[in-house]
Structures are given as structure tokens and as C-alpha cells.
Amino acid sequence: MFESTTVAVGLDVHARSVRLAAVRADELLEERTLPYDEEAVERVLRRWPAVRCCYEAGPTGFGLYRYLVERGIDCRVVAPGLVPQRPGDRVKTDSRDARKLARLLAGGLLEPIHVPSRELEAARDLVRAREDARLDRMRDRHRLSKFCLRHGRTLPTNSWTVVRRKWLGEQRFEFVAQQQTFDTYVHTVDLVDARIEALERGPWCQLVARLRCLRGIDSLTAFALAAEIGDFNRFKSAEEVMAFVGLVPSERSSGEKRRQGSITKVGNSHVRRLLVESAWHARRHPKVGYELARRQRGQDAALIERSWRCQQRLYQRWQRMAGRGKPQQKIVVACARELAGFVWAIATEQPLRNT
Question: pTM to 2 decimals?
């Protein structure tokens, strides 16, 4: 709860406008719509000596938050999925959203999210640009391969290698329109390959080297986890990390009845996808192959031991759930939840427990 003299301001931020609602105790002091101008928002907030404001995280980013905080104004960013919603409330307008945020902020019912630093956000942008380029490459390769298949030309080899690229460069078609289409598809694939190669020359850090000791996590995945999560020390336990990435089961319990459902899927979807992709390695028997041994070379013995325990724990979890007839999709999600805990333990350098 805020002091009775503190003004709580809710901001509904859009690309070109900001809807502002100011509340003190139960009194609505002011409502207005401003252009998206950081200085204009600051001027309005300066009218009250004690003010706190908040807005929901969205496509406009954290620019307004950083501008206000740097000028000494208490500003918070909240997750839209964690804003309390009344049952039956089906009317949504900018005015209602701003008033609701102001009243919830005044009542102390909003939990602010962690806002990354500018450097961390830049690294996160690089990771997401690489993911976008990877999806573009998959689509472009599909278009090219399906075009060749329609014209009776099956691509050699089972993967995109130098042999396949050389074969593509030797293909010729009878009609000019077909040749132009084919050349366009090949050129598009070459361009996206160059984009990915440039994006993969990203920064490197010690944390990435430690995370690569886990099976299923190599350089790009480790860097993405570090960039998306940021400061691992803000989580007090592994369970908090699991909840942050939305890998914990939802629950609807009342009285003596406890009902758990599918995972919540709140928080960072990029981290959740990366962990699930990496967790598929848990279905194989634990081992340290050549590549994993190379990544672990020179690392601390306790870290290598934790990596081995991770393999064993995830494999045992997979086998137990598979023995009970659970579908693979549920099994891999459960293993991804366990993997999130190991990632947190490595990032925060937790002491290794005796078993």
C-alpha cells in the first residue's frame, strides 16, 4: 500500500499515444491522453510531489521506463499476464486500462518485472534476430526444395552441405520463367545463410562456457539463455526460474481438492522453447561424447560432475514417465523444467550437494 499522499498513475502506452490516469486513495485526480512524448509525460507527472507510475510491458519496449527512472521518477513495468482480471470484465478500453493500473498500483497489487540493461537488451535483440533468420532460412529452403521436387529434381544428400549447393549451381531449366524463379530461390537461401553467419559472431562470456557443459546446450543456446534471463541471481531458487519460464503446472485447488493442469506458459517464451528443445536429449542414455567432452575441457570438476548428474536425473525422469505411459510431449516438458533448475545452479554457482 502507498501513503495517502502518494499519487498512483497508470499509463496505457501505445505507439503514438499515452493514456494517463492519476489516482490518490480512492479519488480519481485526472485523466488525459498525451502524445507519445517522454518529456510530455514527465511534465504531467511532475505536477505531484509524490508520484509513482506504471505501465504494461509491450511492443513499445522500455524506453519510457528508462527515461523516467533516470530523471528520478518512480516507474515500474508490469507483465500483462500478471495483472489481476475480474471475472466477467469484457470491456477493454484505454481509459479503463489506465484507471485499472492506477488503482492496482495504489493498492500494491502489481508485481514489477525485471527490466534488462541496455547492453543485455542489445544482446537479446541479437539472439532474436538470429532466431528470425533461422526461421527464414527454413522457409526459404523448403520453397527451393519443393520447387525442385515439382520439376522432378530430387536434391542430393540428406542435409544442406557443400555438395548440395554445388548441385544447385549446376541446375538449368528450359523456360526463362522457371530459371528466374529457381535463381531467385537459390539467391534468397544464400542471403539468409550470410545473415546467420554474421549474427553468429556474437559476444562471448564465461557463463556461456559453463552452460555449454550441459548436454543439448551449445554456444548459441547458451548465449540465448544468458541474454534472455540476464541476472540469474535475482532468483532465490530453481523453482523461481521454472515459474519464470512458465514450465510449472497450472493449479486450481479449493478446500481438500487439488487439481493441476498444463503448464502456465507465462514469462519468457524464448527461454521455454530453448529448454524444451535441449531437453529432447534426455531420452538417450547418459554419455559424454567427443563434442561434449571438448566443450567441458578445462572446466571445473564440480561443474562437470553437475553436468553428469543432470544427464542421469533427466534420463531417469524420462524413463519413469515413459514407463507410466506418459506422452513424449509431457515428458520433455517435465525434463525441461528440471533442466531449468540445473541451468540456474550452474549460472549462480550453487554448491554441489552430496548424494
Answer: 0.77
